[in-house]
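Q: Convert this sequence to structure tokens.
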Amino acid sequence: MRAAHWRQRCRVMEKEARRAPAEAVVFLGDSLTEHFDLNRFLKKPGLVNHGISGDHIDGARERLHLSKKIRPQQLWLMIGINDLFDGRDDAWMFSEYQCLLEELDFCPRVMVQSLLPTGASWREEAGGRVAAVNRFLRDESKKRGFFYVDLHTPFNRALEAGERLFQPDDIHLNERAYALWSARIKELIFRPGA
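A:
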């Protein structure tokens, strides 16, 4: 059984699907996506936020029909960090990713984003596995003709330069992190007629 917040967000997405723009761009993910103020940071028409805090790969698969209903021209995916935090093993995760990626065939432009680095207090728990997951996502994206967007590298560089990108919980992103994310993807977002 999914959490109350998950079910509530799905109800909102169901209602929004009825009035989605014709040239929609969907962002599918977890809390990092849900908290991403797409209109403020990206300033593009047709952006639809399908992020749900605490979600996992299987949760994204379960609600993928809501993204399908919109018939987006582009779909941006970032999901999986909660699976790492919850101790799901690589074999399970990779199998779920393969199923999810296979189900994205309804969208003409799929943008698979890497997982981000974690804050210092979470590195031991999940940080070492992020690189393996990102390699898997990169390779699967290439096989399927999807576009892989490496956000890990610029985030890691910023962290190494001493920038603070996380809220005090060392998981969720601050304003600077969302600005960095936006700068990396802004020019890659679908534009009708482009």
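The chain has one domain: 4-188.
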